[in-house]
Specification:
Blueprint: H1 8-30, E1 47-52, H2 58-63, H3 67-74, E2 77-82, H4 92-101, E3 114-116, H5 122-130, E4 139-141, H6 144-152, H7 162-169, E5 173-177, E6 182-183, E7 189-190, E8 205-206, E9 208-210, E10 216-218, E11 226-228, H8 230-240, E12 245-250, H9 253-261, H10 266-288, E13 296-301, E14 313-318, E15 325-329, E16 337-339, H11 343-350, E17 364-366, H12 373-416, H13 421-443, H14 449-452, H15 454-476, H16 482-500, H17 526-546, H18 549-568, H19 576-593, H20 600-622, H21 631-642, H22 645-660, H23 670-684, H24 686-695, H25 699-716, H26 722-743
Parallel strand pairs: 1-12, 1-13, 2-15, 2-16, 5-9, 5-12
Antiparallel strand pairs: 2-14, 3-4, 4-8, 6-7, 10-11, 13-14, 15-17
Helix pairs in contact: 1-18, 1-20, 7-11, 8-10, 9-10, 12-13, 12-23, 12-26, 13-15, 13-16, 13-26, 15-16, 16-17, 17-18, 17-19, 17-25, 17-26, 18-19, 19-20, 19-25, 20-21, 23-24, 24-26, 25-26
Length: 766
């Protein structure tokens, strides 16, 4: 049977069916873990001790003398903790509120006000505000109402106090021991008891604890003249820690140290921090003397970073049945990384408490040994440094990419008025260099530029782009579209290989993702999707042009099918918004490459196929163990539990994120810049664009597909304008290149000799 004689529409749909069949086979083959293994991946414990040590990073642990921390963490599963909450500036109140909610949440300054009932008239004031009168011995947080109001206005669906409420309903006792109070230079008291946010229930109450002045002792050697009385703190912990209990003790000297550092010289800042870390380490050692580690899970966590930033902090779990190694979770699916939202589900998991459906976090689990303790900590320190370095260069790298587009257009217009062959070739190579810039930024992730510095980074990026572009041009310049096709192909090949092997080049790279932003830890990120989708659509059209007859058309369509599969498959790209955008874009492109007209019903068809395909991918994702599911599978599970309100929350959050960055993103400049120059061409020399359309008729299909991808990519991905912005960057450089190449009047030289009877066009050049 001759495949070429099949109805083209049926052939396109058949390719989609084959792709979905591959997707169907993948998860079942990859989901090797038994379904029940994720119910309690770290085992069970009679009680949980949460030792909170605010702002502590792994670099502190490796640099400071912390014998007790080292001894505990050597026996623990450990990771970098992504403390990113709703905003990049995650305060202590944000960190504790998120820890308790199991979902991104915001705190409030009033959340620092917690007291042991009855404390004067404050308990009565709390009762007036909330309708709940705390019993004697209970700890209550006077900031409950402001915290509730803030989170009701957000689009994360956080239930404040979710962990505390779940523990209370399961009759698990809760206690908090914390006091970061200090006086100002004018003698005014600043209350810092926000740790209570970490275990309070929905009513703002904790069963018991100690947050008063008795935890402190005067010592003029310490900031503000006070420090923890470690013996008193330890006695309080021992009195509350019992079977079926959770106790949160904060090393509050770290709170005072962080505040004091703002007022100290650079040299003294280090002294103050080292002093607080040493005293906190001594507290841990004292507390653990009377803790039965055979029955108690000890969780060391730093819920917020230095200067309320989003750099990575310390998390470690020493549990009765868990071997030392690296931590992971379903929200990251990357060894050595977890998020604050994962703490609440994991605490509940230790005690067999049902996990509230409002929690977006997942159970943490051991994910390999990661080598020795020294190797694990070295890796965690290095990844934090890489994340901080990446964050420092992503802005300049994005701005450079946008500004170079302006330079390219100026050079192109200047070149059109000159007959210099050397100048023309130079600009042609420059357009390829701009495209090569994108994959080169991923290759930069292989090297430790966080240690070598920004000068080495920029030298590598700029020289690497120039070398790659020059090599491609030298090898492929003979025929019209070959240099552009080869460059776009390099983007596609790099991203394909990277995603298939787990995305190592996506992580902590300029156009990848970073744990400090914590939007994604695996799969294909939005910037990668943008350049991948644009490159795939244009390359498909160029292949259909370059290879004679129907064979070229079907090769181009096959490439589009691969792009859809790679981006949307749960075990590869796991990109929900990208798949919803890419399927219609690829469908429209394929439809037009086959010479079929796009009508309203065609658009409806591809929209329906997109939704059904994503639902199918999500259903397949649900067959995998919970810890291995992507955010698509977790979203469908959430919808199944909480109804379509869960979907509504996600959609509204994405729309809010998209429109909120329109006025602040450098990518917004890409739209007027590119459109202005295209308008200029239509005004001054429309024949240049017409010549491309005549020489490469498949370009119309690419234009339709790219417009579809840009519009849907903006609407369906929470990176907003960055998605069409990056796509326009790829399109702009490619268009300039083609205009210059068409002027050169180069031959096409199709791969095949002559056209077959079903060819859409002749095999010779126009």
């Amino acid at each position: 049977m001759n495949c070429n004689r099949l109805n083209p529409k049926l052939k396109v749909l058949a390719l989609i069916g084959i792709g979905l069949a591959v997707v169907c086979a993948g998860p079942s083959a990859l989901a090797a873990s038994p379904e029940g293994s994720a119910d309690a991946p770290l085992g069970r414990a009679e009680s949980v001790l949460i030792f909170s040590i605010p702002t502590l990073a792994w670099a502190d642990v490796t640099a400071e003398a912390t014998p007790h921390l080292d001894a505990l963490l050597r026996q623990s599963v450990i990771a970098d903790l992504s403390v990113r909450s709703v905003t990049r500036d995650t305060s202590a109140t944000d960190g504790y509120t998120t820890l308790n909610s199991g979902t991104r949440a915001e705190g409030a300054p009033e959340g620092m006000l917690a007291y042991l009932s009855p404390e004067g008239t404050l308990a009565q004031q709390f009762a007036v505000q909330t309708g709940k009168r705390p019993a004697t011995g209970e700890v209550f947080n006077l900031g409950l109402v402001p915290v509730l109001k803030i989170n009701e206005s957000l689009l994360y669906g956080a239930e404040v106090g979710a962990l505390g409420t779940a523990l209370s309903q399961a009759e698990v006792s809760r206690a908090v021991i914390a006091n970061g109070d200090h006086s100002t230079a004018l003698g005014q008291m600043t209350y810092r008891r926000e740790a209570s946010l970490g275990l309070m229930d929905e009513h703002g109450i904790i069963d018991s604890g100690e947050v008063g002045r008795r935890l402190l002792e005067d010592d003029v050697r310490y900031p503000f003249g006070v420090r923890y009385n470690n013996e008193e703190v330890a006695v309080s912990v021992w009195s509350f820690l019992k079977p079926k209990s959770v106790v949160l003790v904060e090393a509050s000297d770290m709170v005072r140290a962080a505040q004091a550092q703002l007022l100290a010289t650079t040299a003294q800042q280090e002294v103050i921090r080292s002093q607080a870390i040493a005293h906190s380490d001594a507290l841990l050692g004292l507390v653990l003397k009377k803790v039965d580690l055979s029955k108690t899970a000890v969780l060391v966590v730093a819920p917020n970073a230095v200067d309320d930033g989003s750099s990575l902090t310390v998390v470690g779990i020493r549990a009765p049945q868990v071997q030392p190694g690296l931590l992971s979770s379903g929200t990251t699916r990357r060894a050595g990384f977890v998020q604050t939202v994962d703490i609440a589900p994991s605490v509940a998991g230790f005690l067999g408490v049902p996990i509230p459906s409002s929690m977006e976090g997942t159970l943490m689990e051991r994910k390999g040994s990661g080598g020795t303790y020294e190797q694990r900590t070295e890796m965690l320190v290095s990844e934090n440094e890489a994340a901080i370095f990446r964050d420092s260069v992503v802005g300049p790298a994005s701005t450079l990419f946008v500004l170079v587009q302006l330079l390219l257009w100026v050079l192109a217009i200047f070149t059109f008025s000159r007959s210099s062959t050397g100048l023309r070739k130079g600009v042609e190579i420059a357009t390829l260099g701009v495209l090569a810039y994108l994959p080169i930024t991923y290759f930069a992730g292989i090297f430790p530029f966080e240690q070598w510095g920004s000068a080495a980074f920029w030298a590598f990026i700029i020289l690497g782009s120039a070398i790659v572009a020059s090599a491609i041009y030298a090898l492929t310049q003979r025929f019209l579209v070959d240099p552009l096709l080869a460059t776009l192909g390099s983007i596609l090949v790099l991203l394909s290989v990277d995603i298939v092997i787990g995305g190592p080049l996506q992580f902590n790279t300029v156009f990848g993702y970073t744990p400090t932003v914590a939007g994604r830890f695996n799969g294909m990120g939005n910037p990668a999707f943008s350049m991948f989708a644009a490159s795939a659509i244009m390359a498909a059209a160029l292949i259909a042009y370059r290879v004679a007859g129907r064979r070229g058309t079907w090769l181009g369509i096959a490439l589009l099918g691969w792009a859809v599969l790679l981006d949307g498959a749960p075990f590869w790209g796991a990109d929900v918004g990208g798949a919803l955008a890419m399927i219609p874009a690829a469908g429209v492109t394929a439809w037009m490459l086959l010479g079929l007209k796009v009508r309203a019903r065609t658009a409806a068809l591809w929209g329906s196929i997109s939704v059904l395909a994503v639902i199918g991918l999500g259903a397949l994702d649900l067959t995998r163990p919970p810890a291995e599911r992507t955010h698509l599978g977790r979203l469908l599970a959430d919808i199944g539990t909480n109804g379509y309100e869960a979907l509504n929350t996600v959609v509204l959050r994405k729309l809010d994120a998209n429109f909120s960055v329109l006025s602040s993103s450098v990518w917004t400049l890409m739209l007027p810049l590119v459109f202005a120059f295209i308008a200029y061409l239509f005004w001054k020399s429309p024949w240049r664009l017409q010549t491309i359309a005549e020489r490469i008729p498949q370009e119309r299909a690419a234009v339709a597909g790219l417009i579809t991808a840009m519009v849907l990519g903006f609407a369906l991905n929470d990176s907003g304008i960055a998605v069409p912005g990056i796509m326009l960057g790829v399109i702009s450089a490619s268009l300039i290149h083609l205009m210059l190449r068409v002027d050169d009047d180069l031959p096409r030289e199709s791969v095949a000799v002559g056209a077959d009877e079903n060819s859409l066009e002749p095999s010779s050049g126009a």
